[in-house]
Amino acid sequence: MPTTPTGRPPVRATADDSAAAFAALRKILASHAKGLKVTADGPKGYSLNTPYSEKWKKELFFGAVQVMKNYVSFHLFPVYMFPALLDGISGELKARMQGKSCFNFRAPDTVLFQELEALTKAGLARMKAEKLF
Asked: Which among 12, 49, 113, 127 would be 20 to 30 A from 35, CA to CA?
């Protein structure tokens, strides 16, 4: 990622960084789409819901990737439902959190994306184990 004259990363993502982060984060979420319902799939966003949940009497939001003006957001609803999933995540990934279930990135980060992949897998497994769908 390029730096400013002060040596800090820029406040806004470049178009290339944003596109690369979106593609990588979309790939993480899409790899878990089997058995889930794609509710959005476009250049600015990708979203998944669960099938109909008898317990909740509706589909449940699972996750999404959104391109925002200054960053790309990765939303993962299982960490909101089951906060214990966040136990043991790295300080670096925790620093990317905005709210209870959203992670923001300005550029791809291979190490953090691998950790996010494992968290997504664990979240889906937990939702299935709880028989939410």
From this structure: 113
